[in-house]
From TrEMBL:
Native organism taxonomy: Bacteria, Pseudomonadati, Pseudomonadota, Alphaproteobacteria, Rhodobacterales
Domain of life assignment: Bacteria
Stretches of the chain forming a coiled coil according to its record: none
Protein name: DUF1330 domain-containing protein
SUPFAM superfamilies in the record: Dimeric alpha+beta barrel
Pfam family, one: DUF1330
Gene3D superfamilies attached to this UniProt entry: 3.30.70.100
Domain DUF1330: 2-92
Transmembrane segments annotated in the record for this chain: none
Length: 95
């Protein structure tokens, strides 16, 4: 079943986070991920607000997790650590 990768992000170092973004997009695409939302307009109804929200669709939870664990994504992630506060989750889409 398809899955969504959902990230809620506050960028604290735009330069370093920019390096993350340059590498993360190709790593996600290489694992079949397609972006549905990348930092667009949003309305926070509950919980902690993060100014950047990203949603990508994958063929499965396993594909999304494999992307996250891949060397290419981990290389990208090394630039986001210390440059952002973020939550990331993968959720399966019900058919």
């Amino acid at each position: 079943m398809p899955a969504l990768w959902i990230a809620h992000v506050t960028v604290t170092d735009p330069e370093a986070y920019g390096r993350y973004a340059e590498l993360a997009g190709p790593a996600i695409a290489a694992h079949g991920g397609t972006f549905l939302a990348r930092g667009g307009r949003f309305v926070q109804l509950e919980g902690r607000e993060r100014p950047r929200n990203v949603v990508a669709r994958f063929d499965s939870v396993e594909a999304a997790v494999a992307c996250y664990e891949s060397p290419a994504y981990q290389q990208a992630l090394s630039h986001a650590k210390g440059a952002s506060e973020r939550e990331l989750l993968v959720v399966e889409i019900e058919a």
